[in-house]
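Note to self: keep these together.
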Amino acid sequence: MRIDILCRPESSRRCEEMVEVVKSALDHAGVEAEVHLFRDRRKMIDNRVYVSPALLVDDAVRIAGRIPEEREIMSILAERPRYFKRLAKVA
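Structure:
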């Protein structure tokens, strides 16, 4: 799973908050994913996102213009059950 966070170059505080919320949701849900932070206006325009921050999951815009709560991110991740870690007992 690939998670991209798109931000404007001048908005640093909101972007960092978004990264922290996404990482804590991934840890809490036990999901393995690549998290990338982009501070590029061109990438925002290419994805048709005009408000920041924006959350993209596998190149699909899921949230734009606000910082979601952890439970909202977990509900987005729950739609993709194949990415959950498999727990195995070590003998």
